Amino acid sequence: MNKKLTGLIIILILILASLIVYFNISIKDKKSQSQQTTSVQTEKKNDLSSSNIIENVEYLSKDAAGNEYVIKASEGEIDIDNNNIIFLKNVSAVINLKNSNKVLIFADFGKYNINNFDTIFSKNIVVTYLDKKITSDYLDFSIIRNSMFISKNVVYKDLENTLITDVIEINLKTKDTKFFMYNTNNKINIIKQN
Questions:
Q1: Among 63, 112, 122, 142, which one has the highest count of C-beta atoms within 10 angstroms of its own C-beta?
Q2: CA 111, 120, 173: angle at the middle one, nearest 5?
């Protein structure tokens, strides 16, 4: 009887050890695919236990290709209906593309998804990259799509030109940039710099 009990205990220990190793490897694989470091500081509001306001928000995300995305805001409010969404105020973001220069984004407001890192910026947006500056009132950024869609009162400036357009679409991987108008009868306004 003791041999059967001892054998059963050994089998249970082996099964338990196998499960622990399996789940440990599974968790490490998920972390290596997409890392996210979150650093938030909270400031006491009227009722801390029911508050969904956070001060000095900072998120750092890195994709499998090594591109980094850092977003900061003076204040964030967690969406009551979806706690994966944070509404941000006074937003700044840095996109560090591997083998490329930094892209800086500033906006009055942002809507950040902590699961996929997609961010919608709004109001008084300024994007700078090398000698280029884009201003607008709406920007949809996605690491998964590797793209930025910029619209609403768009003005693009570089050392030679100023372009006024409805939409700019930027592929972050290829750096391809498309300018277009919603109404095909309208034309992009191009002003040459002196």
A1: 112
A2: 135
Within this chain, do residues 23 and 69 fall inside the same structural domain, yes or no? no
pTM recorded for the entire structure: 0.72
17 and 50 within one domain:
no
> What one-letter code names the amino acid at 158?
D
Q: From CA 48, how far away is CA 70, in angstroms rounded?
A: 27
Task: Determine which helix (DSSP H) or strand (DSSP E) holds 42, and give its type and residue range.
Answer: none
- Largest CA-CA distance found in the chain, in angstroms, rounded: 96
Domain, as residue range, for 10: 1-33
**Are residues 40 and 29 located together in one domain of the fold?**
no
Report how far residue 92's alpha carbon sits from residue 3's, in angstroms, rounded to the nearest whole number.
67
Reported as a single tens digit per residue, the pLDDT across 35-61 is: 444 444 434 334 444 458 889 999 888
Tokens found for residue 130: 């090398």
What pLDDT is recorded for position 63? Answer: 77
CB atoms closer than 10 angstroms to residue 46: 7
